[in-house]
Design a protein that fits this description.
Blueprint (H helix, E strand, L loop, with lengths): L28 H9 L3 H28 L1 E3 L5 E3 L4 H22 L6 H17 L7 H4 L2 H22 L3 H18 L8 H33 L18 H10 L10 H24 L2 H28 L4 H20 L1 H10 L11 H4 L8 H15 L10 H16 L1 H40 L6 H12 L14 H8 L2 H32 L6 H19 L3 H20 L4 H34 L9 H13 L5 H17 L3 H19 L19
Antiparallel strand pairs: 1-2
Length: 703
């Protein structure tokens, strides 16, 4: 099984579709071939172990098919007629169809989709037609698992990853399908691959969990990196009313945003568990299923039997018509089969795999007659007479299956009531059970270790992949990328740069300066409107104050004259619209008074943030900011923060302290605090005589 060709942009864009170029683009036919056979995430991981399985399954089963599929030459000699091209051609066609289907699902709008769809229809038609070619009957049992493993599962993985972001539902459904199939087939025929399905499902589920956690980790890093440009953190104010102190405190607090570093430990858990669980599954099958021990036991018994048959063979070589020798050889073989099947280890494996029941000879004769297994001979005869009257072909002239059903009824009666028929049936059943069991054991002995090795060392997502990736990166001089990380990306390095103290301080101060510009532009527009309305009461003085603060904020923000004019015009328009919605001069006067009071609160909150910065800096370990100049600066800032009120100032201080603690490393935390204070001092300048920030020398201790 396998995960999707990532449908998320951060994890490879449209996933597999981009892997081979576009069929309709520059790639042309080469692009189509690349789509069909190229290494596309989900399909590649799914197809690799299944191609191995399909090859082994086809070869192993076709060996039996070739022995059974014989014809007679003119000279009377048997002739083997294998058809190995058919199953291998089917697997190849299904793999190509899966690749094209994955490309269409991963990126339906990609160029060349018409060519992909056309080639997919052609390949699908050829794949459907192949099973109706000269395919030997035993091979048809492998058709369902071949289609499931090589085509259905990879395509479902791509679809699942595109729709829900993970193929874990497909892994769960796979395990459920295999479990249900065990009740119908045991571990015989095509379902001999049940352990392989379990192993691949488990491996894929853990791989998907690891990939999902890695993608979440990468997304968290990207969100942290993008937080610098997050416009939702910018302070915004409505001109139609005066914000409450709590609202202003929230605006000031939100501007200081420190992305929390995501923890990658969870993503490493499946990475560690996956190989351990794979080994545990192999160990379980090795102990629970003594395949090698059973084959060794059967081989030893076969050797002993061949020694006994050798004596009778010598007699046959002397006299080919020696009936006694022929009967003796048949008897020895029957004894060997019965004795071998009665051995505990063989009997255990025959029942475990279902070889006793899931074969071409076994029939539940009691069930055919509608009886319990402990029915007496008289009950058997009575049931046969009753059923034969109703099931005779003469009673059903229009039913083509009536004859075969009546023959099955007769066989059941003969086997259960006639000694010779019973002995013949049991001998055929024993030989068929032995043949099915040996075939299952041979397949299990090769398949399980092969898929185990493929999962751990060969398939995409194997244990060696990180090492190989690191070696390639080292040789190519590039940094490795994890799951969900684009080529050349260094998300952890970018996140570390984005969360450096000075970077965080610059982002926070830029937001606050933008907020200052917006706030004082609105305050100036309100003051001008109040002055024009003749409200008096110090409006002109407040207007001058607002203009001074606005010019200082715009200068600190590095705003161009054109941008400054645009912001002022926008603020005037917002205020004018807000005032037009008010009725009467009293309402306008009330709004102005509330805005004037809010202006004092906002200014006080900016000083409250400065006091909090100084408090955090003075408490910083490893550097001394506890001298008198620092305590005086903090006291001055607290005094200037008084108009904000105790509760809003406390909210700002707690928010600033929480953000500072989220910064990793004492040095980066100190750099954030220092840079924030320097930026505020740059905006305030010497206009506030009661506040003086001590001179800070980079890398020096301060007393």
């Amino acid at each position: 099984m396998a995960p999707r060709a990532d449908a998320r942009a951060g994890a490879g864009g449209a996933g597999g579709a981009g892997g081979a170029g576009g069929a309709g683009g520059a790639g042309g036919l080469r692009g189509l071939v690349g789509d069909a056979l190229g290494p596309r995430g989900a399909l590649r991981r799914a197809a690799f172990p299944w191609l191995l399985w399909a090859a082994v399954a086809c070869v192993g089963d076709f060996a039996g098919a070739a022995i059974k599929s014989t014809s007679i030459e003119d000279n009377g000699e048997p002739k083997l007629e294998p058809e190995p091209i058919v199953p291998f051609a089917l697997v190849l066609l299904m793999r190509c169809a899966a690749g094209l289907s994955g490309a269409l699902i991963a990126d339906p709008a990609a160029p060349g989709r018409g060519a992909r769809a056309g080639l997919l229809v052609l390949l699908a038609g050829a794949a459907v037609a192949l099973p109706y070619a000269e395919w030997r009957e035993p091979m048809k049992g492998w058709l369902p698992p071949a289609v499931l493993g090589v085509f259905v599962l990879p395509v479902l993985n791509v679809a699942s990853k595109r729709l829900v972001g993970t193929s874990l539902p497909v892994a769960l459904a796979l395990a459920l399908i295999v479990r249900v199939a065990e009740d119908s087939y045991g571990w015989t025929g095509p379902n001999v691959t049940a352990p392989v399905f379990y192993l691949v499902a488990m491996h894929q589920a853990l791989f998907d969990a690891e990939e999902l956690l890695d993608t979440r980790y990468s997304d968290a890093l990207r969100r942290g990196i993008a937080a610098r440009e997050d416009t939702s953190l910018l302070p915004r104010f409505g001109a139609e009313r005066a914000p409450a102190p709590a609202e202003l405190a929230a605006v000031v607090t939100r501007a200081t945003h420190v992305p929390r570093a995501p923890k990658r430990g969870a993503a490493r858990v499946p990475r560690i568990i996956r190989p351990l669980t794979t080994i545990a599954v192999l160990f379980y099958f090795s102990t629970e299923l003594p395949v090698s021990d059973t084959l060794n036991f059967v081989g030893h018994e076969s050797t002993e039997m061949m020694k006994k048959l050798g004596k009778h063979q010598n007699n046959l070589n002397k006299n080919p018509n020696d009936i006694d020798a022929i009967l003796a050889m048949q008897s020895e073989m029957n004894i060997f089969v019965r004795k071998t099947l009665r051995a505990p280890i063989v009997d255990y494996m025959a029942h475990y795999t279902g070889a006793h029941y899931f074969n071409s000879v076994y029939e539940d004769h009691h069930a055919t007659l509608g009886l319990e297994p402990d029915a007496s001979k008289s009950q058997i005869k009575k049931a046969f007479r009753t059923l034969s009257l109703t099931m005779h072909p003469d009673k059903h002239p229009n039913d083509p299956t009536a004859a075969s059903r009546f023959e099955k009824l007769q066989r059941a009666n003969d086997v259960l009531t006639k000694k010779d028929s019973g002995i013949s049936y049991r001998e055929k059943l024993a030989h068929e059970t032995m043949g099915v069991l040996i075939n299952a054991l041979l397949m299990l002995q090769f398949l399980v270790p092969s898929i185990f090795v493929a999962c751990l060392f060969l398939a995409p997502g194997n244990l060696l992949e990180p090492l190989i990736g690191a070696m390639k990166a080292k040789l190519g001089g590039k940094k490795t990328s994890g799951k969900g990380v684009g080529a050349g990306e260094d998300l952890e390095g970018d996140f570390a740069s984005a969360t450096q103290g000075r970077t965080l301080a610059a982002a926070a101060e830029a937001r606050l300066m933008t907020g200052d510009c917006r706030w004082w532009a609105q305050q100036l527009a309100h003051a001008d409107a109040a002055a024009a309305a003749g409200l008096g009461g110090g409006v002109e003085r407040y207007g001058e104050r607002a203009a001074s603060e606005l010019n200082a904020s715009m200068k600190a923000a590095g705003m161009s004259p054109a941008d400054a004019t645009e912001m002022k015009d926008k603020a005037r328009a917002e205020v004018q619209k807000a005032l037009e919605g008010l009725r009467g001069s009293e309402a306008r006067k009330a709004l102005w008074e509330a805005r004037e009071q809010a202006g004092g609160v906002y200014e006080g909150l900016r000083w409250a943030r400065t006091a909090a910065l100084l408090s955090e800096l003075r408490a910083s370990p490893g550097a001394s900011y506890s001298g008198t100049p620092w305590s005086q600066a903090e006291e001055a800032a607290r005094s200037l923060a008084a108009p904000a009120g105790e509760a809003p100032a406390k909210v700002v201080a707690e928010g600033l302290g929480s953000a500072a603690r989220d910064i990793s490393g004492a040095e980066e935390r100190e750099a954030f605090l220092v840079a924030s204070l320097q930026a505020f001092q740059h905006r305030v300048g010497g206009r506030e005589k009661s506040f003086s920030l001590p001179k800070i020398k980079e890398g020096k201790k301060h007393a």
